[in-house]
């Protein structure tokens, strides 16, 4: 049991470093974690300042950072699977004795932690470009919420990643899924401006709760951050269960149809 | 002259076939249209949250224009970079024809798709947000759209030509697209931004064209907008000339150094 | 007028390594090349990888500039007279790249026909002919991404012929093809030559050059080692017989004694899963077989045959074994 756990951890660590090396030379990552966060901060904070709602500055700064986190995460699931398929290595990964989601976990976690850069970048942009006062009301809760947010996003990415194995258009879907997620999870504006019938959809998305937890820790929302953190844990577990079931099904389909080689 | 027309037609056919492959009902309905629309919706909602329906309407007009401009910057960049990706550069160098009309033809499909996006955003989002654009004189606006998308295309060629020897082409043209959104007065008047950033807008395409469109909605006459349109044309010509210079230079360097494949 | 005339041609590539402390390194790809190809000739350029074949083809097809010397194709300078020259030459660089994958085969040729300024009334007739010549008529309207490697290579040839060039440059056209596809492609090349085209072909396959070319130049490390007909090339080794001995566990001492034998010109050895195959080039080799076997005592000799030398043997004699393996 312990040996098994150890070997699983080794796989996660291995794919973690692999991904880190790959990332440094990847334009999507430089764009996602450095360039876009700056632009999105300028865009959103600029809009709120113009609209006379400067108090939304911190909200927008966190939101822009979360967009980077999400982009990096979605990139993992979509582009990695697509890349492995192109390179012909996907079938090897599927055929290896380690379950595919575990390989993905390492890669996703690696990306998730790297994606913290985007939060640093958005905070810096807010401070330098707009001289915003970015006070975090409850730093301890903020850090815990941040960690749980990364984990829940990784788990959500696994659900998507498992289904991406099935399609050659993973990259396209990924990009198409970007803005709907940004809108539904209220990263840049309060969810109350959306129609009520969209709420159930928002409430099953990790970024929604991650953003809420960070907002509550920062003192922007009146909710108790620790309660939202608990919800995030539950959500992550639910994602993991779904990912596992989904992946078994997907693996079966892929092997039955031989669709891994076709792209 | 007839040779130029033949080359232009041939390039247009090739460009169209290249895009047509992607235009299946699934990708158009599942990815291309939603992506265009939802990106606009996202930014319009931020403006709505910041400044109510007046600012939302402002952003609706801005994002209509930007949807087309963003697309053409990326597509034109791709038109040039495709030569590198496919390894057709040596054949382009060795062909006796002037590549200029052929490349212009290749760009046509992307330009037209840009204009189609304007129509699409107007048709879907104006009723969706209940915006009142009855004052928009389409006869007056159409040439402004034509000119603005064309001058943005010129910037796209420049982006493609500059990034030809690098692996950063997609990041560069995407960044340009978002910078234009920031500095061109798309979501809010740029006055809320630091002066340096405001200044960038004046040397980029679209800023003048967008001002002209907004003026048309406010009932401006042809004489009122002619100055802005002229600015837009001049900016487009300057970027076009620069793109031509840089691309010619790239071809010459390729012939001298033999770095055609490593590009 | 000659089809191709090359005088003292050279080409140096500069590469830089390191990002902070840049060091420049010059690599000589071609050195002092002199060569004449007559109109209507099918000329082969033979050499190992990295010998400079591709560099020479690219210079002759106006895609790359030489560093020194000059070259003329159809009497026109490849550096200065590109405007007049380009419409009259065609080129095919091996490999799968260089095609628009999302377009059909026919559209690809059509696009290049336009780039080569072929009048529409001519291309309307010529494109089906070319597709027919390379045997792609039936699949001409499918997208290239679905083509096999051989089909892509054939499409490349058709593309290279679209302007009905007087001189055609083919850089390793059969590389990576299966034997059947390669044979089909060679038939097309011969057919083009019969129709009067001058063809300049590079290859590192001996039999290909032997089968196709009227004359061969062997290049190695950027220099021409020899220019002659394939048969003259083979007479270099005509006085030799080749004795092939299959055995096991050849000792280095035995190999050295073989090489030192007065009637042995050269010995090359290949390993196949524990067994060795010795190729001994030797004048009057048949009589010496008993002596060779005696030297190899203890090496479990399993099979001995003699054969006539091939172009490959001549190549080995000329360039040494490394050239063949690289």
Describe the structure.
The complex is a heterotrimer of chains A (263), B (263) and C (326). Chain A has one domain (11-257). Helix content of chain A is 78%, strand content 0%. Chain A has eleven helices and no strands. In chain A, helix 2 runs parallel beside helix 6 (116-130) and helix 3 (57-86) packs antiparallel against helix 5. The termini of chain A are far apart. The relative contact order of chain A is 0.14. Chain B is mostly helical and 263 residues long. Chain B has one domain. Chain B has helices at 2-20, 25-86, 89-94, 99-128, 138-163, 169-183, 195-202, 207-217, 222-257. Chain C is of the alpha/beta class. Chain C has two domains: 4-233, P-loop containing nucleotide triphosphate hydrolases (Rossmann fold, 3-Layer(aba) Sandwich), CATH 3.40.50.300; 241-308, Alpha-Beta Plaits. Chain C is built from twelve helices and 14 strands. Chain C has helices spanning 53-60, 82-85, 105-115, 120-133, 149-160, 179-194, 206-212, 230-235, 252-260, 285-295, 311-319, 321-325; strands spanning 4-17, 23-37, 42-46, 68-73, 76-77, 89-93, 167-171, 198-203, 215-220, 223-228, 241-248, 266-272, 275-282, 303-307. In chain C, strands 6-7-8-3-9-10 form a six-stranded mixed sheet, sandwiched between helices. In chain C, strands 2-1-4-5 form a four-stranded antiparallel sheet. A four-stranded antiparallel sheet of chain C has the order 12-13-11-14, with helices on one face. In chain C, a hairpin with a 2-residue loop joins strand 9 and strand 10 (223-228). Chain C is globular, with a radius of gyration of 23 Å. In chain C, 44% of the residues are buried. The model of chain C has no long low-confidence stretch (mean pLDDT 84). The chains are: A mainly alpha (263), B mainly alpha (263), C alpha/beta (326).
Derived from helix and strand composition plus strand pairing, the structural class of chain A reads mainly alpha
The rough form of chain C would be described as: globular
Radius of gyration of chain C: 23 Å
Euclidean distance between termini CA atoms of chain A: 38 Å
Overall helicity of chain C: 25-40%
- Describe the global form of chain A: globular
- CATH architecture label name of the largest domain in chain C: 3-Layer(aba) Sandwich
Order of helices and strands of chain A: HHHHHHHHHHH
Q: How many independent structural domains of chain C? A: 2
Within CATH, the superfamily of the largest domain in chain C carries the name: P-loop containing nucleotide triphosphate hydrolases
Gyration radius of chain A, to the nearest Å? 19 Å
Order of helices and strands of chain C: EEEHEEHEHHHEHEHEEHEHEEHEHH
Number of strands of chain C: 14
Number of DSSP-assigned strands of chain A: 0
């Amino acid at each position: 049991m312990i040996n098994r756990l150890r070997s699983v951890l080794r796989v996660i660590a291995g794919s973690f470093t692999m991904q880190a090396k790959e990332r440094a030379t990847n334009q999507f990552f430089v764009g996602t974690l450095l360039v876009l966060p700056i632009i999105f901060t300028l865009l959103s904070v600029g809009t709120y300042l113009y609209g006379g709602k400067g108090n939304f500055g911190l909200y927008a700064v966190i939101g822009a950072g979360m967009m980077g986190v999400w982009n990096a995460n979605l990139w993992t699931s979509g582009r990695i699977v697509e890349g492995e398929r192109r390179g012909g290595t996907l079938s090897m990964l599927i055929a290896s004795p380690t379950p595919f989601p575990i390989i993905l976990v390492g890669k996703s976690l690696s990306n998730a932690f790297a994606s913290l850069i985007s939060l640093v970048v958005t905070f810096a942009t807010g401070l330098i470009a707009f001289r915003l006062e970015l006070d975090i009301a409850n730093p301890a809760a903020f850090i815990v919420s941040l960690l749980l947010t990364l984990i829940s996003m990784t788990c959500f990415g696994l659900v998507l990643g498992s289904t991406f194995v099935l399609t050659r258009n993973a990259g396209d879907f990924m990009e198409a899924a970007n803005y709907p997620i940004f809108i539904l999870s209220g990263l840049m504006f309060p969810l109350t401006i959306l129609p009520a019938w969209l709420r159930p959809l928002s409430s099953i998305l990790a970024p929604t709760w991650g953003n809420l937890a960070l907002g509550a820790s920062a003192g922007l929302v009146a909710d108790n951050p620790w309660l939202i953190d608990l919800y995030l844990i539950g959500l992550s577990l639910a994602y993991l269960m779904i990912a596992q079931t989904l992946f078994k099904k997907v693996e079966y389909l892929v092997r039955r149809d031989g669709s891994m080689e076709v792209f | 002259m007839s040779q130029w027309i033949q080359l232009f037609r041939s390039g247009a056919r090739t460009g169209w076939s290249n895009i047509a492959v992607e235009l299946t009902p699934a990708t158009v309905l599942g990815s291309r249209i939603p992506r265009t629309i939802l990106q606009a919706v996202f930014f319009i909602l931020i403006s709505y949250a910041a400044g109510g329906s007046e600012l939302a309407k402002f952003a609706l007009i801005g994002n209509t224009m930007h949807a087309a401009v963003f697309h053409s910057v990326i597509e034109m960049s791709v038109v040039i970079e495709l030569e590198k990706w496919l390894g057709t550069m040596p054949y382009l160098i060795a062909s006796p024809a002037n590549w200029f009309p052929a490349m212009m033809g290749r760009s046509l499909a992307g330009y037209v798709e840009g204009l189609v996006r304007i129509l699409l955003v107007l048709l879907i989002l104006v009723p969706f947000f209940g915006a009142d654009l009855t004052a928009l004189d389409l006869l007056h606006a159409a040439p402004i759209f034509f000119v603005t998308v064309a001058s943005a295309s010129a910037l796209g060629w420049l982006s493609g030509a500059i990034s030809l020897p690098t692996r950063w082409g997609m990041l560069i043209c995407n960044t340009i697209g978002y910078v234009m959104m920031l500095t061109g007065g798309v979501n809010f008047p740029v006055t809320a931004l630091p002066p340096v950033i405001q200044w960038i807008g004046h040397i980029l395409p679209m800023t003048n064209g967008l001002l002209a469109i907004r003026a048309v909605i406010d009932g401006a006459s042809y004489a009122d907008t002619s100055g802005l349109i002229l600015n837009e044309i001049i900016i487009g010509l300057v970027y076009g000339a620069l793109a031509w210079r840089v691309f010619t230079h790239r071809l010459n360097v390729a012939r001298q150094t033999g770095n055609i494949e490593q590009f | 007028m000659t089809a191709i005339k090359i005088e003292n041609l050279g080409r140096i590539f500069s590469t830089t390594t390191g990002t902070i402390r840049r060091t420049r390194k010059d690599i000589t790809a071609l050195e002092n090349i002199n060569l004449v190809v007559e109109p209507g000739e099918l000329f082969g350029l033979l050499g190992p990888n990295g010998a400079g074949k591709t560099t020479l083809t690219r210079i002759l097809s106006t895609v790359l500039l030489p560093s020194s010397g000059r070259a003329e194709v159809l009497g026109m300078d490849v550096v200065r007279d590109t405007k007049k020259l380009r419409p009259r030459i065609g080129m095919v660089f091996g490999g799968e790249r260089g095609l628009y994958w999302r377009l059909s085969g026919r559209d690809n040729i059509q696009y290049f026909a336009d780039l080569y300024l072929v009048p529409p009334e001519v291309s309307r007739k010529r494109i089906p002919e070319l597709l027919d010549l390379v045997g792609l008529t039936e699949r001409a309207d499918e997208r290239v991404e679905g083509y096999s490697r051989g089909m892509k290579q054939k499409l490349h040839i058709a593309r290279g012929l679209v302007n009905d060039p007087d001189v055609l440059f083919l850089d390793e056209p059969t590389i990576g093809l299966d034997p059947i596809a390669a044979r089909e492609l060679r038939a097309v090349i011969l057919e083009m030559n019969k129709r009067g085209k001058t063809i300049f072909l590079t290859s590192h396959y001996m039999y290909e050059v032997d089968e196709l070319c009227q004359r061969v130049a062997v290049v190695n490390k950027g220099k021409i080692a020899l220019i002659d007909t394939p048969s003259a090339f083979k007479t270099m080794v005509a006085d030799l017989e080749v004795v092939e001995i299959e055995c096991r566990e050849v000792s280095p001492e035995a190999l050295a004694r073989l090489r030192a034998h007065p009637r042995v010109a050269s010995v090359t050895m290949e390993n196949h899963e524990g067994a060795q195959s010795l190729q001994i080039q030797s004048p009057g080799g048949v009589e010496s077989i008993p002596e060779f076997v005696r030297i190899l005592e203890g090496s479990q000799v399993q099979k001995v045959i003699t054969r006539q030398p091939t172009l490959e043997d001549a190549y080995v004699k000329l360039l040494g074994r490394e050239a063949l393996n690289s």
